[in-house]
């Protein structure tokens, strides 16, 4: 039985990798206004919500055959894609209600939305006229949201055989859903980088900005940093920051025989090295973890920390400016949540300052890493 399940998972993995969807990014230069006030953030937020809702509504008319063709898959979990759509609609309605609170200040993209039926109606007829101040944004945004929706639908179609951040397995898994409106948590995966590298730069930059983030460290990389420098230097590296674990190696924890050892070994290392910085959070590489792991994580006193805003800054994905613009667009769409960058990648060094500069006057808040997921 275990062999059969592993073979099925391998087939699905190959199926998933056969026709990857294009990674979505949007040139924010097509939007004609700076996000220089909370009200202008809301204008852009309303626009992105309506455009995404328009794409989401259109996708519901596709049958299984059309959806398989669209996503490049031979097998789909229709129940999971339907559940994803339901959750997306609920989030969009909540977000639009927040975004329309400033309609008295600026009425752009303001429509009467009091119920789900209202939102679906407005999404169905949403269109930007050719003489609109926002026309240059419309077509690129439509493309972005169609591609981004494909990313989400594809992950849902493969869930739970290939797990990802698109859905949770239980209450022990957290993704920022409970955050207040306009509140975001910065997180970094895959580190630490070698000494004097990207992790050092990012942690120092955050301290200068009087900000913090959660760094999910790999046990093997952290052990190497200690061996090549010292405990004191590693402690200084993460001063003022939070450190969780991503396991001992950056590999899927869904079918790895020693996945439990990977989690416990790396968590013990972080906790022993940096008890003041340690947070009891595990970030699964690739978002992949076992559906039956809740008991294990609860016994270890750990929560699984997922995300809902992916920078796509890994090698072969987006460039730094594209990554920053993708994150900003998703912040406008989701209005709260967990942002993930990779501190081993130089792209984050460019993307993060761009992101902070673009949102400096927009009324956003940055979640203290010590308070997140308590």
Automatic annotation (TrEMBL):
Keywords: Signal. Residues 179-302 form the NodB homology domain. It comes from the Bacteria. Gene3D superfamilies: Glycoside hydrolase/deacetylase (3.20.20.370). InterPro entries: Glyco_hydro/deAcase_b/a-brl, NODB_dom, Polysacc_deacetylase_ArnD. Residues 1-18 form the signal peptide. This is Polysaccharide deacetylase family protein.
């Amino acid at each position: 039985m275990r062999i059969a399940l592993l073979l099925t998972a391998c087939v699905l993995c190959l199926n998933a990798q056969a026709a990857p969807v294009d990674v979505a990014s949007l040139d924010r230069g097509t939007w004609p206004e700076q996000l220089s006030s909370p009200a202008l953030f809301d204008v852009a937020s309303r626009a992105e919500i309506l455009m995404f809702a328009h794409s989401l509504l259109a996708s519901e008319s596709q049958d299984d055959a059309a959806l398989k063709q669209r996503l490049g898959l031979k097998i789909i979990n229709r129940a999971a894609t339907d559940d994803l759509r339901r959750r997306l609609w609920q989030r969009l309605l909540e977000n639009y209600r927040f975004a329309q609170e400033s309609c008295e200040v600026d009425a752009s993209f303001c429509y009467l939305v009091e119920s789900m039926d209202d939102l679906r109606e407005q999404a169905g007829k949403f269109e930007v006229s050719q003489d609109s101040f926002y026309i240059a944004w419309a077509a690129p945004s439509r493309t972005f949201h169609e591609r981004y929706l494909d990313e989400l639908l594809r992950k849902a179609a493969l869930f739970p055989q290939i797990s990802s951040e698109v859905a949770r397995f239980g209450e022990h898994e957290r993704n920022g859903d409970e955050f207040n409106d306009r509140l975001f948590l910065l997180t970094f995966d895959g580190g630490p980088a070698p000494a004097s590298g990207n992790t050092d730069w990012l942690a120092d930059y955050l301290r200068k900005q009087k900000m913090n983030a959660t760094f999910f460290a790999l046990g093997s990389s952290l052990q190497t940093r200690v061996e090549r420098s010292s405990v004191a230097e590693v402690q200084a590296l993460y001063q003022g920051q939070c450190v969780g674990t991503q396991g001992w190696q950056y590999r899927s924890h869904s079918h790895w025989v020693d996945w439990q050892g990977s989690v416990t070994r790396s968590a013990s290392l972080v906790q022993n090295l940096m008890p003041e910085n340690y947070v009891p959070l595990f970030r699964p590489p690739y978002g992949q973890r076992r559906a039956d792991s809740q008991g294990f994580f609860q016994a270890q006193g750990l929560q699984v920390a997922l995300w809902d805003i992916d920078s796509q800054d890994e090698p072969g994905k987006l460039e730094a400016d594209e990554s920053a613009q993708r994150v900003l667009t998703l912040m406008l769409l989701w209005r709260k949540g967990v942002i993930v960058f990779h501190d081993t990648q130089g792209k984050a060094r460019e993307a993060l300052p761009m992101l902070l500069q673009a949102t400096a006057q927009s009324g956003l808040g940055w979640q203290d890493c010590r308070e997140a997921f308590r």
